[in-house]
Design a protein that fits this description.
The complex is a heterodimer of chains A (107) and B (120).
Chain A lengths: L3 E4 L2 E4 L5 E7 L7 E6 L6 E5 L3 E2 L7 E6 L2 E6 L9 E6 L6 E2 L3 E5 L1
Parallel strand pairs in A: 2-11
Antiparallel strand pairs in A: 1-3, 3-8, 4-5, 4-9, 5-6, 7-8, 9-10, 9-11
Chain B lengths: L2 E5 L2 E3 L5 E8 L8 E6 L5 E7 L6 E3 L7 E6 L4 E6 L8 E8 L7 E4 L3 E5 L2
Parallel strand pairs in B: 2-11
Antiparallel strand pairs in B: 1-3, 3-8, 4-5, 4-9, 5-6, 7-8, 9-10, 9-11
The chains are: A mainly beta (107), B mainly beta (120).
Chain lengths: 107, 120
């Protein structure tokens, strides 16, 4: 099974900060990497697919990069509505696996 | 508008069975793969199982293989998860998720979840 490891597990940041979350796969997954945002009490929401493609309706301050085993989700200027948990997920092989999540909190 | 509505959750004793359902609307159900994803209280997301558009490809997480069975009824626009031999560690909110494609694992729409609690 492919293990997905996110870092950090949590971070504190201020509105306007640039935030970077890293996701590492235990083996190469090419660009089969997706990112989701989850707010408390809500279902996850797709942000980025295929490592760097922005889902329709998602603000352009969100971006993704990477290939192979190392991936990054960047929020260029953190907004109040971005405080949430973020998960990476590989769609390269079965079983599909998620990272453990990164909680972005207000500093 | 795409909608996914899960049902069938509840309190069940260890070793017993439960069947979850997900009824969808707002899209052509038989054009897309579907999945179950769960989230234990206060924990992260775990993919449980997925089924391709025509039921020709099915996959399971190692943690549920041999105990859970996914199925779909395209005529009823419904997805199911038969859960047998339930364990305390199966306690979670179970989400139904639509795939972007006929096969794969890109979850573009989610339901609100149905809570399964396994306890004596």
């Amino acid at each position: 099974d492919i293990q997905m490891t996110q870092s950090p597990s949590s971070l504190s940041a201020s509105v306007g900060d640039r935030v970077t979350i890293t996701c590492r796969a235990s083996q190469s997954i090419n660009r089969y990497l997706n990112w989701y945002q989850q707010k408390p009490g809500k279902a996850p929401k797709l942000l980025i697919y295929a490592a760097s493609s922005l889902e329709s309706g998602v603000p352009s301050r969100f971006s993704g990069s990477g290939s192979g085993t190392d991936f990054t989700l960047t929020i260029s200027s953190l907004q109040p509505e971005d405080f949430a948990s973020y998960y990476c997920q590989q769609s390269y092989s079965i079983p599909r696996t998620f990272g453990q999540g990164t909680k972005v909190e207000i500093k | 508008e795409v909608q996914l509505v899960e049902s069938g959750g509840g309190l069940v004793q260890p070793g017993r069975s439960l069947r979850l359902s997900c009824v969808v609307s707002g899209f052509t159900f038989d054009d897309y793969a579907m999945h179950w994803v769960r989230q234990a209280p206060g924990k992260g997301l775990e993919w449980v199982s997925g089924i391709s558009w025509n039921s020709g490809s099915i996959g399971y997480a190692d943690s549920v293989k041999g105990r859970f069975t996914i199925s779909r009824d395209n005529a009823k626009k419904s997805l199911y998860l038969q859960m047998n031999s339930l364990r305390a560690e199966d306690t979670a909110l179970y989400y139904c998720a639509k795939d972007r494609n006929r096969e794969g694992a890109l979850f573009d729409y989610w339901g609100q979840g149905t809570l399964v609690t396994v306890s004596s």
